[in-house]
Amino acid sequence: MDNKSYSYGMKITGVLLHSFFTVILTVSVFLLVALINKNILELTDIGTEDFLSSGYYLKCMEQKCSDLSEYMLLTQKGDFRNSEDDKLYLRYTNEFKQENTNFCYWYKVGGVWYTNQPDTREGQTFDTQTILMEAKTMGDYLLYDMENKEFGTDIRGLENYFFNGYNSQMYWPLEDVVLVIGVDTQLSAMDDLYDAQVEYSRLHPWIKVSIVGTIIGLIGWILSLVYLTLAAGRREECEEICLSSIDRVKTELMIAGFVMIASQLLLLVAEVTNKEWDVSGLLVASGSVSFLIDAIFLIFYLSMVRRLKAEVMWENSLVCWLGKGLEKTFRERSVTVRVLIAFAIHMVVCFVLAVGAFYYGNILALILLLVFCGMEAYIMLRKAVEQYRILQGVEEIADGGLNAKIDVEDLHGEDRQLAEAINNIGAGLLHAVDDSTKNERMKADLITNVSHDIKTPLTSIINYVNLIKLEDIENERVKNYVRILDEKSQRLKQLTEDLVEASKVSSGNVKLDMQQIDIVELVCQTGGEFNEKFESKELTIVTKLPKQAVYIWSDGRHLYRVIENLYNNVAKYALEKTRVYVEVQETGDTAVFSIKNVSEKSLALENSSVEDLTERFIRGDSSRTTEGSGLGLSIAKNLTILMGGQFDISVDGDLFRATLVFPVYKEEGESDGESSNI
Fold first, then answer.
1. Which range among 219-233, 312-326, 584-598 shows the weakest confidence by mean pLDDT?
2. Cα–Cα distance measured from residue 533 to residue 526, given in angstroms and rounded to the nearest whole number
3. What pLDDT is stored for residue 41 in this prediction?
4. Cα–Cα distance between 381 and 371 in angstroms, integer?
5. In which band, very low, low, confident or very high, does the pLDDT at 40 lie, cut at 50, 70 and 90?
6. How far is it, in rounded angstroms, from Cα 491 to Cα 260?
7. DSSP symbols for 447-472
8. For residue 205, what are the CA distances in angstroms to 276, 278, 477, 585?
9. pLDDT (0 to 100) of residue 328
10. Closest to 425 (Cα-Cα) out of 415, 436, 433
């Protein structure tokens, strides 16, 4: 809606209309309540103005019959009436013994007739049909004859009163009761029926007025309130929400003031309702009170609406003001001082409120104590929830979810700052991991590409060296040069192959052919192939192998490469004339292969950490005088992990030990604790 529709004049008109409809609604509701209390308002009376055809007349007749029944019962009691019964009896006697009355009755019980007709006496014998004819001539009549089992009346709806079972106690004893009632429909006598007709004629026209007024007032009240809600805080040619001076009052003070004033006005409304008013007095009293209530309501309601629209409900609250003040006070203080000050404030406030509540018996102090404790409990629970959310976020990041973010919208204070810092750490780690992964991929690609580029000229060099070796060379120096070229070219070839394989293994680009492998047989085969190398360095192999086969699930070719690299590592770096220990064990669900040797070079001095030995291009000989490339252990570790095994090395002084662990292969249906024995 355009802001031009919210002009100052339009808003004043909206306020006046809202107050007008409030008065109309309140007055109409008060009228309806008054009519209901006087039993004037009946749904069947809305369309009729005749008193004798109204539901109000029927209620009057029902009440007269009830009073007559009570009167007859008290008459039957006679001397057995108590003091309370005597009071009722005198009242009913005054009601039913009036000579000038529009309500005439003939009542027979126990063979005795009772009547309020003049020139008659109690106990006089009457003919039922004769007095019935007399009653009919009066206008309205009723016949209730239990002797002849007859009933008749021309008062609409009165028969339900006699036969609904609720009022059966009226006509005791029922076997011989005869009741004839006649009502002068001219209402010539000025009795209670005449007064009821006058009151009905005076109040009945207000039924339609009050109903229509209630509907119109309610609709107008809602529509005007909706308009004022939309217009609150809006001004012409102003896009932002404009606050008034009363909106600067703290929110809690505004609510407390409204509650206090509203409670006093409600007490005033109760007093107005409890008093007897004529129609004009009721209109003036209810209208004045409702106008005052609506003015107070609009001031409070529109202020709250403007605060909500401007989003200053919390910022303009007393709690927020106190919180910001305390935050400024504690901001430069250490954590210990802040906790001690907060605890001291808690103790002082609780002590003062507890004294007021329990020593002086002040209810307000007790309420404030409960509210204060509730606020503290809420703050503690909120802080615990916020810290738990931060902990969940940290655990998620620690588990590798670097993309995880802690939602800081509902966090406050230091918890919010901590969550933002953790989010920044997670983002930094994610960026660092991405950069590291990218760099690692670039290194692997560079190694692969360079290795492939070296292979072509290296192949030519090896081929030409082989061709030269076929020539008949007599010069010993040239022969020695050719031998050196052959050795170095073969070493370079092995290095490039190791580089390509290491790159493939580290990137996981290896095709595995997993099958059942006997690791004992594979170790025996590998050991036999290295006998010559070990003998050249005078190394003694001490093997400890099971007599039966130990099967694992692995790739035979790559597993052989792993064990071959370990044997090669021993052949290159083991101290001459020492022992090499090779062992295979089956322990429960795992098969363990280990190889131990004494290093020729001091491992404690050569490497800062044992884990460094499995990194690429790291060798036990830091001077790099040996022929190794430094890739053997790295390839062995990565291949073992790819095949589902575990690779571990340990160093104790100069003693080097490498260990492989693989799950024992089991056939389908075999128990977990039983190894395969195929």
1. 312-326
2. 12
3. 52
4. 15
5. low
6. 98
7. HHHHHHHHHHHHHHHHHHHHHHHHS-
8. 19, 14, 140, 109
9. 66
10. 433
Contact status, residue 63 vs residue 242, Cβ threshold 8 Å? no
Residue with tokens 């805080």: 233
CA 67/CA 626 separation, integer angstroms: 129
Higher pLDDT, 389 or 662: 662
Tell the residue number behind the tokens 């406050």, with chain if given.
412
Q: Bridge-partner residues for 542, per DSSP?
A: 581
Structure-token pair, residue 393: 């976020």
Residues in Cβ contact with 283 at an 8 Å cutoff, skipping those fewer than 6 apart = 27
Q: Contact 625/638 with Cβ under 8 angstroms?
A: no
Alpha carbon distances (Å) from 399 to 30, 105, 425: 69, 97, 14
Please give the pLDDT value at position 677. 32
Cα gap 466→460, rounded to integer Å: 10
pLDDT tens digit sequence for 243-284:
888 888 888 888 888 888 878 877 776 666 666 555 566 667
Q: Please tell me whether residue 587 adopts helix, strand or coil conformation.
A: strand
What residue type is 273 in one-letter code? Answer: T
Kindly state the helix (H) or strand (E) to which residue 283 belongs, with its residue range: helix 279-310
Burial of 617-626, coded b for 16+ CB within 10 Å and e otherwise, reads: ebbbbeeeee
pLDDT (average), residues 566-586: 89
Confidence of residue 625 (pLDDT cuts 50, 70, 90): very low
**Residue 94: C-alpha distances to residues 69, 86, 90, 97, 558 (Å):** 15, 12, 6, 6, 122
How sure is the predictor about 116, in pLDDT bands with cuts at 50, 70 and 90?
confident
Helix axes 632-642, 556-573, angle to 10 degrees: 150
CA separation, residue 674 to residues 439, 664, 671 (Å)? 46, 9, 5
pLDDT of residue 581: 93
CA separation, residue 562 to residues 192, 313, 569, 638 (Å)? 119, 71, 11, 9
- Residue 247: DSSP 8-state: G
The answer to pTM > 0.85 is no
pLDDT in tens, 414-463: 777 777 777 777 677 667 767 776 776 676 666 666 666 677 787 888 88
- Residues 496 and 410: their CA atoms lie apart, in Å, by 58
Q: What tokens does 661 get?
A: 């662990």
How many angstroms separate the CA atoms of 208 and 522, rounded?
108
- Give the DSSP H/E element, type plus range, for residue 245: none
Do 387 and 379 form a contact (C-beta atoms < 8 A)? no
- Residue 647: beta bridge partners? 660
Pairing of strands 579-587, 540-544: parallel
The residue among 275, 267, 214, 238 whose CA lies nearest residue 28 is 214
Give the separation between CA 127 and CA 122, rounded to whole angstroms: 14
Predicted confidence band of residue 608 (pLDDT cuts 50, 70, 90)? very low
Q: Distance of CA 543 to CAs 104, 267, 518, 550, 654, Å?
A: 133, 103, 16, 15, 20
**DSSP SS3 for 209:** helix
- The overall average pLDDT reported for the chain is 77
User: Which tokens belong to 575?
Assistant: 């101290």
Three-class secondary structure of residue 495 per DSSP: helix
Rounded to an integer, the average pLDDT of 479-492 is 79
638: closest CA among 548, 558, 557? 558
Please tell me the predicted confidence (pLDDT) of residue 573.
86
Helices (H) and strands (E) counted in the chain, each on its own, are: 19, 12
Contacts of 381 by beta carbon, 8 Å cutoff, 6+ apart: none
Of 13, 3, 19, residue with least CA distance to 301: 19
